[in-house]
């Protein structure tokens, strides 16, 4: 076969430059795998004068989206420019023009994934988005293909490289939050606006994408319960470690007949759980399937070449579909109506850290709040506080609902300062 497939690359930043490098360095093996030559014929950038570390011919660069989308010789559009509306518009126009599309954009896929996949089906083309979740880990393909035979009932994962990198560096190397965030940005892990990483929105987008796929239901971003890593207070990591936990920014998604529950928040993760050993920019997704039991995928969650590996694998898949004439033949209809689970039905153990007056009767008053809410405590620890006349109380609950936890928090605030609170994960299986 003597075919050539042309790519239009939208963006040549951290991910785009990795894509260009892999296509250049793996040219022969890609040609061997596909029986066709793959080349980047146009690249969209914002600034034509920027110095770039690339072997691409300078003539391929343009600032005109139209020049790429309207070029009939370009069969695959690779969107790695980021942002939401402009990227969404580019993907939509490419699909309407019948082009194959590959994207790493979780913002777009979390908000517009289902209509775009439907459009791709209608236009008999494909939309691939492996790099949108967990960088170099083939999690989308695992859910779509590898575990297609199973029914997934839960997944939890460290799906943001930046926050995991920051937590690791603060915990293991004593870096400050600002130093660790600056380093993550320098290494290309953080989003253009890193508040999306640290406030949990990036991970929430990824959990939404995974939930839709895992449960064949249109999960909604706005239903993800989100707490950012700024909720972690000085001293919490040290307390977690003493109690046999580590603090992780965790995305969780569970589904049963009552509906789907999704959250992203810092949690106390049992040190013996495999997710507790995931450090730096590495990600991992722990999946429970009714038949497979428990399985975990692990790998680099951000960065140029790891992410580009997923993008280029999608490009290869897009090429294969074109060459075999099967573009748009993978149906994306969802099987189940989406139903969100109410907070009364979401159960977990909780950690509460309180600052109280060190005086007679305080403990009785506080524990009465727990028993009055029907919550059973599994551990109560009192420690001296830095302030004279005060004490710190650490309370661990048995399994209670999120509603009970929120009610208890509200009542505790009338008698104590709530220093921090976390869900506890990893005590049992998923
Ligand atoms: P980036 O380094 O900021 O690169 C963005 C690229 O797109 C730059 O080349 C920029 O041009 C170009 N661009 C942006 N807006 C443009 C516009 N309006 N018109 C023309 N060109 C434009 O971003 P990135 O880190 O590669 O991320 C790209 C996408 O991949 C995002 O959706 C991100 O969430 C996703 N992603 C990133 C990672 C990661 O580890 N970084 C991992 C997984 C997914 P200039 O070069 O001229 O500025
Ligand atoms: N900012 C993202 C992260 C990039 O840190 O995980 C990968 O999606």
Summarize the structure in words.
With 430 residues, the chain is α/β, with parallel strands linked by helices. It has three domains: 4-135 and 304-324, Rossmann fold (3-Layer(aba) Sandwich), CATH 3.40.50.720; 150-300, Dihydrodipicolinate Reductase, domain 2 (2-Layer Sandwich); 343-425, ACT domain (Alpha-Beta Plaits). 36% of the residues lie in helices and 28% in strands. The chain is built from 14 helices and 17 strands. The protein has helices at 14-25, 27-34, 65-69, 85-96, 106-122, 139-146, 161-173, 177-186, 195-198, 201-215, 236-242, 304-324, 362-372, 402-412; strands at residues 3-10, 36-44, 61-62, 74-79, 100-103, 127-128, 152-158, 224-226, 245-256, 259-270, 282-289, 293-300, 347-357, 377-384, 390-397, 400-401, 417-425. The strands form two sheets. Strands 7, 8, 9, 10, 11, 12, 13, 14, 15, 16 and 17 form an eleven-stranded mixed β-sheet that branches. It has a six-stranded parallel β-sheet with strand order 3-2-1-4-5-6, with helices on both faces. A hairpin with a 2-residue loop joins strand 9 (245-256) and strand 10. Helix 1 packs across helix 12, helix 4 packs parallel to helix 5 (106-122) and helix 5 runs parallel beside helix 10. The radius of gyration is 24 Å and the shape is elongated. Bound molecules: NADP nicotinamide-adenine-dinucleotide phosphate and L-homoserine. Residues 11-16, 44-47, 50, 80-83, 86, 104-106, 131, 135, 188-189, 191-192, 302-303, 307 line the site of NADP nicotinamide-adenine-dinucleotide phosphate.
Layout: helices, strands, pairs:
Elements lengths: L2 E8 L3 H12 L1 H8 L1 E9 L16 E2 L2 H5 L4 E6 L5 H12 L3 E4 L2 H17 L4 E2 L10 H8 L5 E7 L2 H13 L3 H10 L8 H4 L2 H15 L8 E3 L9 H7 L2 E12 L2 E12 L11 E8 L3 E8 L3 H21 L22 E11 L4 H11 L4 E8 L5 E8 L2 E2 H11 L4 E9 L5
Helix pairs in contact: 1-12, 4-5, 5-10, 7-8
The protein binds NADP nicotinamide-adenine-dinucleotide phosphate and L-homoserine.
The site of NADP nicotinamide-adenine-dinucleotide phosphate has 28 residues, from helix 1.
């Amino acid at each position: 076969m003597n075919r050539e497939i042309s790519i239009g690359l939208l963006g040549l930043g951290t991910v785009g430059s990795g894509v260009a490098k892999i296509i250049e360095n793996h040219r022969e093996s890609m040609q061997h795998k596909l029986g066709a030559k793959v080349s980047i014929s146009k690249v969209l950038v914002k600034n034509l004068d920027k110095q770039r570390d690339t072997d691409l011919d300078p003539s391929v660069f343009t600032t005109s989206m139209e020049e790429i989308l309207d070029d009939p010789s370009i069969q695959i559009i690779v969107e790695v420019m980021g942002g939401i509306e402009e990227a969404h518009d580019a993907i939509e126009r490419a699909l309407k023009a019948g082009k194959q599309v590959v994207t790493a954009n979780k913002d777009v896929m979390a908000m517009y994934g289902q209509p775009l996949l439907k459009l791709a089906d209608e236009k008999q083309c494909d939309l691939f988005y492996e790099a949108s979740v967990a960088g170099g880990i083939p999690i989308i393909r695992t859910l779509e293909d590898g575990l297609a035979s199973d029914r997934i009932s839960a997944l939890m994962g460290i799906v943001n490289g930046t926050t995991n990198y920051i937590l690791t560096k603060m915990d293991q190397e004593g870096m400050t939050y600002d130093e660790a965030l600056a380093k993550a940005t320098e290494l290309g892990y953080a989003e253009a606006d890193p508040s999306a990483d640290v406030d949990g929105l990036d991970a929430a987008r990824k959990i939404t994408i995974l939930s839709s796929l895992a449960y064949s239901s249109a999960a909604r971003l706005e239903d993800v319960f989100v707490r950012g890593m700024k909720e972690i207070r000085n001293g919490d990591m040290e307390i977690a470690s003493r109690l046999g936990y580590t603090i992780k920014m965790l995305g969780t998604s569970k589904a049963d007949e009552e509906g789907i529950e999704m959250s992203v928040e810092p949690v106390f993760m049992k040190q013996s759980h495999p997710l507790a050993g995931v450090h730096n920019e590495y990600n991992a997704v722990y999946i429970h399937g009714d038949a497979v039991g428990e399985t975990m995928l692990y790998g680099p969650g951000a960065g140029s070449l790891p992410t580009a590996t997923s993008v280029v694998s999608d490009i290869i898949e897009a090429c294969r579909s074109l060459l075999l004439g099967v573009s748009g033949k993978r149906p994306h209809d969802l099987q189940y109506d989406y139903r969100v689970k109410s907070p009364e039905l979401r159960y977990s153990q909780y950690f509460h850290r309180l600052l109280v007056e060190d005086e007679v009767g305080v403990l009785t008053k506080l524990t009465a709040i727990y028993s009055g809410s029907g919550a059973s405590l599994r551990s109560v620890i009192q420690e001296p506080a830095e302030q004279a006349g005060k004490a710190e109380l650490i309370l661990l609950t048995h399994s209670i609902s999120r509603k009970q936890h929120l009610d208890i928090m509200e009542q505790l605030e009338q008698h104590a300062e709530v220093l921090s609170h976390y869900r506890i994960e990893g005590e049992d299986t998923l």
